[in-house]
Amino acid sequence: MTLTDRCDSVPMDKNENYEKKETSMGDTLREVVWQAQEQGRLTCGVNDCAQLLEVDPYNVMLCVLPEAAASGSEVSLHIHHMLIEAFCREYDIRLVKVDSLSKMSDIVKGRTPSTDNCVKVTRSSAADTSCLIVQYPSDGTSEEDEVLAEYYKNVIFSDSSQTCVISLPD
After folding, report:
1. Model pTM above 0.85
2. Contact call for residues 104 and 31 (beta carbons, < 8 A)
3. CB 138: neighbour CB atoms within 10 A?
4. The pLDDT value given to residue 8
5. What SS3 state is found at 42?
């Protein structure tokens, strides 16, 4: 089951100005990542994300990648991102690109996880926030999950590039 299947009942005016909503989508994405982090559903790092995609792709709700690689980044990281993107498209996993790797890193590192959960952000992978995987929650999606899913669906069906890029808040 995909996130769109779970969220078809969320009303959204098809004529809304998505450029105006993009800033709020950045806030929504940040909240989705924070919720996943608190609930132990967030996986960080290219290698850990690739391993999760290989083992359990049908439990992945969302994959987040930077739109452009950071300057001076390794070629191998770019190749990993391309392979993860292709895998997500093959398995109909929601793939969201963000405008800044540093903002994405700040979001993950900006909220410290509580000690009573099992966040999958290990010391080794916390340094690598170039790829994020958010798994489906076991107790149902949140309002932010549903808003992001509906936004994604509307952008993908209205854009010929088939790419959803979200500007993250500063």
Report:
1. no
2. no
3. 9
4. 36
5. strand
Tally the residues of the chain: 170
pLDDT tens digits along 50-84: 999 999 999 999 999 998 765 556 788 889 999 99
Boundaries of domain holding 140: 21-166
Residue 9 located in a structural domain: no
Alpha carbon distance 109, 129 (integer Å): 9
Domain count, the chain: 1
127 domain residue, yes or no: yes
d(CA 33, CA 64): 10
Cα separation of 34 and 40, whole Å? 10
In a domain? residue 5: no
pLDDT 10s digits, 86-120: 999 999 999 999 998 899 999 998 865 555 444 45
Q: For position 106, which CATH number holds?
A: 3.30.1330.30
Structure tokens at 9: 């009942």
Question: In this structure, is residue 16 part of a structural domain?
Answer: no
Quote the tokens at residue 137.
Answer: 């929650």
CB within 8 Å of 40: residues ≥ 6 apart = 117, 118, 119, 120
The whole-number pLDDT of residue 17 equals 47
